[in-house]
Specification:
About 55% of the residues lie in helices and about 10% in strands. The chain is built from 8 helices and 5 strands; from the N terminus they run ααααααααβββββ. A hairpin with a 5-residue loop joins strand 3 and strand 4 (about 240-245).
Length: about 260
């Protein structure tokens, strides 16, 4: 899907936590450079390691691969937490103000990394997992904890129904009009027949090439929502293609 910085800066959670990590590390690095004579050799290694960890988080967020490297990142963060807490205890008791300031920067890093352990360690359906599903791009682009398997099961179960229902419609507009006419003639609400409705894409989404069930959508594209259960919705596009897309990329068109 490519490297896209917008996945980072449009997420308050990801941009805020990474911002604190980089800020804390920069403060610590500058303070260490001012008083190199007091700095242990392991401190330089730790600072470099934490910078590498922060860049790893940045890259996985911007390439939409955070969910793929959860376990590796958790292991790296655990090592970073262990290294960092020892140095905090060592420098916070120093009589030199610069070293105490460096320790303060490391404390910000420690707290933020602990929060990342909660983020990456939370399973589907938990509060933090759901919160992070609304993360990058401001609409859940990274989807680190999305319950994809459940959505795909629902997708397979409803695919035949959706295909048969839409067989006579060449476009989303035709299909939607057909459903509306049927509901008027039968006296039933519009959504009571198949549960379908028109929706618009809030943002563009590139389908995972390794997953044939996903579909790509363009910003402001109008489509038909076939099944809106779960975090991934089944949609029918104007070109006739049917697949799943993240629910927080899509908004219902009220009419």
């Amino acid at each position: 899907m490519g490297f896209q910085l917008r996945r980072l800066y449009s997420s308050p959670i990801f941009s805020g936590t990474l911002g604190l990590i980089f800020a804390g590390l920069l403060v610590s690095l500058i303070c260490a450079c001012f008083k190199t004579v007091y700095i242990e050799a392991t401190t330089w290694f730790m600072i470099v390691y934490l910078f590498m960890l922060a860049f790893a988080l940045l890259v996985t967020i911007c390439t939409n691969t955070l969910h793929k490297y959860r376990l590796a990142l958790l292991a790296m963060i655990s090592i970073g937490l262990s290294l960092n807490v020892g140095h905090i205890g060592y420098y916070i008791n120093a009589s030199v103000g610069v070293l105490q300031a460096m320790s303060a920067g490391l404390i910000f890093v420690e707290i933020t990394l602990f929060f990342w352990v909660l983020i990456l360690g939370s399973g589907p359906g938990t509060y933090l997992a759901d919160l992070c599903d609304t993360g990058a791009d401001g609409m859940g682009n990274t989807l680190p904890m999305a319950n994809v398997s459940k959505a795909r099961t629902s997708y397979r179960q409803t695919m035949n129904m959706a295909t048969n229902a839409a067989a006579g419609a060449s476009t989303v507009t035709d299909y939607y009009s057909s459903e509306l006419n049927q509901s008027v003639m039968s006296g039933k609400p519009r959504d009571s027949i198949t549960g379908v409705y028109k929706a618009r894409a809030l943002y563009a989404y590139d389908a995972n090439p390794d997953d044939p069930n996903e579909v790509s959508i363009a910003k402001d594209e109008v489509m038909l929502v076939i099944d809106d259960s779960g975090k991934w919705w089944q949609v029918k596009k104007d070109d006739g293609s049917v697949g799943i897309a993240p629910s927080n990329y899509i908004t219902r068109i009220l009419s």
